């Protein structure tokens, strides 16, 4: 009976498919609900709290005190909940906008890593930085062998494409991973060549000390990704521009950040 119905009601099937297509178009045309809909606090205050906590080496209670000075009475646990809830959303939107306009990041990459302890156990945080010092990718692993390096490089290249030059230190895992990808001819090593990547670790180290370390790999990976996006957004290179130009760029970055909170 089911087969007869399918063959004899071709017009009904087509009509059902048409209605389903119209339903999908209707759903896609509907405005997305605001992520701040059920929160009593305004999006501007939530965005300010997240920016203060991620961008600066402040504790949750420091952010609570700063907001209290501005007449906002919230607890440090509320700040913790806000950055866990909205931090990934802000970081994702920043990455989406910057990746579209960062074609220059394919010129040269600087790859480096840093040791991070989680509950007394040493882990490795891989980081890729472009020639302008912007952090492109962060990836946490338990080891620093070829398998981990290859996974990190594949993830970075999938998002940003293949660079023309890759500057690394003399860790053999880089050479083995690049050889597996067919990019061993693009690798460069040398003394002081990778200072740009090593200097990019400093803001994260300061932030790590303020947070009193991490307890899980998942927390480290999450914060490293959010911190990289927020730092890139507010990276203004004070020493490379005049005072007036720096003030304009700073105001533009803050305006764009407030626009993220209005999504």
From TrEMBL:
<protein>
    <submittedName>
        <fullName>Putative transposase</fullName>
    </submittedName>
</protein>
<dbReference type="InterPro" id="IPR052183">
    <property type="entry name" value="IS_Transposase"/>
</dbReference>
<keyword id="KW-0233">DNA recombination</keyword>
<keyword id="KW-0815">Transposition</keyword>
<dbReference type="GO" id="GO:0006310">
    <property type="term" value="P:DNA recombination"/>
</dbReference>
<dbReference type="InterPro" id="IPR032874">
    <property type="entry name" value="DDE_dom"/>
</dbReference>
<dbReference type="GO" id="GO:0032196">
    <property type="term" value="P:transposition"/>
</dbReference>
<feature type="domain" description="DDE">
    <location>
        <begin position="107"/>
        <end position="235"/>
    </location>
</feature>
<dbReference type="InterPro" id="IPR012337">
    <property type="entry name" value="RNaseH-like_sf"/>
</dbReference>
<dbReference type="InterPro" id="IPR047930">
    <property type="entry name" value="Transpos_IS6"/>
</dbReference>
<keyword id="KW-0238">DNA-binding</keyword>
<dbReference type="GO" id="GO:0003677">
    <property type="term" value="F:DNA binding"/>
</dbReference>
<dbReference type="Pfam" id="PF13610">
    <property type="entry name" value="DDE_Tnp_IS240"/>
</dbReference>
<comment type="function">
    <text>Involved in the transposition of the insertion sequence.</text>
</comment>
<dbReference type="InterPro" id="IPR036397">
    <property type="entry name" value="RNaseH_sf"/>
</dbReference>
<feature type="region of interest" description="Disordered">
    <location>
        <begin position="1"/>
        <end position="30"/>
    </location>
</feature>
